[in-house]
Design a protein that fits this description.
Chain B: Keywords: ATP-binding, Nucleotide-binding, Transport. The complex is a heterodimer of chains A (296) and B (277). In chain A, 75% of the residues lie in helices and 0% in strands. Chain A has 296 residues and is mostly helical. Chain B has a domain of 192 residues: P-loop containing nucleotide triphosphate hydrolases (Rossmann fold), CATH 3.40.50.300. In chain B, strand 9 and strand 10 form a beta hairpin. The longest helix of chain B has 14 residues. Classes of the chains: A mainly alpha (296), B alpha/beta (277).
């Protein structure tokens, strides 16, 4: 028998302290998770108890009013919807197009990785900076004014990096042997992209796009920079109309709660509407992912 | 045309064949590789390859991992160009034209030269759509014609009887062996002249392997088949000619029974008898 290095007695003595430590760490990780959940729960309960009783058909359908009991958020809901009408096509076309170029067409090299890295960096730029960009470019230089088109394009720029990165990852996840099979039969690159790679990457692309939209819907800072009001303006009917949006409505009501206490409740009610909207969008994302998901 | 003349032309076509060739079964040379060199960046992966491949024959390529046999196979349909750092010199003539010339469109080449891969790679589509994919990308839209192509291709790969009642099922529901035969059928649907097979049975069980080997024997009646394999018995069983690759060079290329029973080079003998590789 060779020399024994494991002293059974010593190992046994240390064992209980090792197991205790193990339990301790597990507890710490659980506590971290719990912290987030508790804070979120407190927030939700607070908002719901304050705002839920103010949500009714009149509140959802009415024009804005300085009289808290008559104020409605239809204008903000329409404004947010119109914003999405601009954001969705712009981000999908430009975002997915960029991702396809970077992943499938661009030569892999320094320039390509430089661009890819900077797109990731852009995802981290504070949203208020995008607001300044939108103000300079769309509102002033192109003289759109603070209309839906300017707001939508600003938000589209803001979430574009998210869509690009998500789409790139989805395209990268398509197994190479599928495109090989297609090329092997004499398909051109575009045929392969269109018929094999894009369908396989679609769930990932759509999930990323909808998550990006959720982000755009809730953004407030860039809109404040653009000078989006929450005033008594007519319902927007097209992308060249002035507008307000749900997060702006929340923002102004919260600020003005010091003048009219009722506004705080209206803000809470609007937050509920916004949360429900976000929840719906995320559910759609999950449904789409499950419906189109393919196994390789 | 007089018989003498025909014979003269045929003799010219097989000029690279050595004296052992039987003049009565002269077969046309499909691929003629001359002085092919290939580099992956700085790595010299193929060194001065000279090799001709004939129609209606199975040509096996054997050799240890990393010897360049798959690289050579992928050069035959220029699939190797999917790796951007590849450089080549020399020439490969396919039916008289140099395919390494940039003016030779890869899409044309790959339409005439089908490929079956190591791991079965059906598309995540129905069995029908997998087969119809090739004809569709080449512009066939008529449903009736597509139906016929699907049936003929599946029959050609001897898998029609197994699959005819489940054409709309997803191809991913098939077994590994069925998937690989589906991929062969998919390749037949484009009506190629040559089929390149890159270790097509390495991921399959013995029974499925046998079925693929039988299929190869049938297919060689109509196609030139080039098969890369790690399985020596497989090469001996199914091929007419065998090339032994080592470190990017062809050590020996001859009739299969010659290579296996009476190899000219010591290294070929060592490899075949399992002394290395």
């Amino acid at each position: 028998m060779t020399t024994k290095y494991m002293d059974a007695e010593l190992v046994g003595k240390r064992m209980s302290s090792r197991v205790r430590k193990n339990t301790g760490w597990k507890g710490l990780f659980f506590a971290s998770t719990l912290f987030g959940l508790v804070v979120l729960a407190v927030l939700l309960i607070r908002i719901f108890t304050q705002g839920i009783e103010y949500i009714n058909i009149d509140f959802l359908m009415n024009h804005l009013s300085t009289d808290a009991s008559r104020a409605g958020i239809m204008g903000a809901i329409l404004g947010t919807a119109w914003l999405m009408v601009v954001v969705i096509p712009v981000t999908m076309v430009i975002g997915v197009g960029t991702a396809i170029y970077l992943e499938l067409y661009a030569k892999k090299g320094k320039l390509q990785s430089f661009i890819a890295t900077n797109i990731s960096n852009l995802a981290g730029v504070p949203s208020i900076v995008y607001g300044l960009l939108g103000l300079t470019l769309f509102v002033r230089a192109l003289e759109f004014g603070n209309v839906i088109l300017a707001g939508g394009l600003t938000l589209a720029l803001l979430v574009l990096p998210i869509v690009i990165v998500a789409a790139q990852e989805a395209l990268r996840a398509v197994p190479g042997n599928l495109s090989e099979a297609s090329y092997g039969m004499g398909a051109t690159k575009w045929q392969t992209v269109r018929r094999i790679i894009l369908p396989a990457a679609l769930p990932g692309i759509l999930t990323g796009a909808i998550l990006a939209l959720s982000r755009a819907i809730g953004e407030t800072a860039p809109l404040t920079v653009l000078g989006i009001p929450a005033l008594l303006i007519p319902f927007p009917e097209g992308i060249f109309d002035t507008f307000t949006a749900l997060p702006m409505q929340i923002y102004y009501w919260t600020i003005d709660a010091s003048l009219v206490a009722e506004y705080a409740n209206l803000a809470a009610a609007t937050i509920i509407v916004l949360l429900v909207l976000l929840f719906l969008l995320n559910s759609i994302a999950i449904l789409i992912r499950n419906k189109f998901q393919q196994r390789y | 045309m007089s018989t003498v003349m025909t014979k003269a032309i045929n003799l010219k076509l097989v000029r690279n064949e050595n004296e052992r060739s039987e003049p009565e079964v002269q077969k046309e040379v499909v691929y003629d590789t001359k002085g092919l060199n290939l580099w992956y960046g700085e790595t010299h992966a193929l060194k001065n390859i000279n090799m001709d491949i004939k129609e209606k024959e199975v040509t096996a390529i054997i050799g240890p991992s990393g010897c360049g046999k798959s690289t050579y196979l992928k050069t035959l349909n220029r699939m190797v160009e999917l790796v951007p750092i590849v450089k080549t010199s020399g020439q490969i003539t396919y039916k008289g034209k140099n395919i390494l010339d940039k003016s030779f469109r890869v899409e044309d080449l790959r339409t005439q030269v089908g490929m079956v891969f190591q791991k079965a790679n059906p598309f995540p589509k129905s069995i029908y759509e997998n087969i119809a994919y090739g004809p569709k990308i080449h512009g066939i839209k008529n449903k009736k014609i597509l139906d016929e192509i699907v049936e003929n291709s599946l029959r050609g790969a001897f898998i029609w009887d197994e699959l005819k009642d489940r054409l709309n099922d997803n191809a991913y529901g098939l077994s590994g062996g069925q998937q690989q035969r589906l991929c062969i059928a998919r390749c037949l649907a484009v009506e190629p002249n040559v089929i390149l097979m890159d270790e097509p049975t390495s991921a399959l069980d013995p029974k499925s392997t046998l079925r693929i080997e039988e299929l190869v024997q049938e297919l060689k009646k109509d196609y030139a088949i080039v098969i890369v394999t790690h399985n020596m018995q497989q090469a001996a069983r199914i091929s007419d000619k065998t090339a032994f690759f080592l470190n990017g060079e062809i050590i020996e290329y001859d009739k299969t029974d010659h290579i296996f029973n009476n190899p000219a080079d010591e290294r070929t003998g060592d490899y075949i008898s399992g002394r290395f590789g």
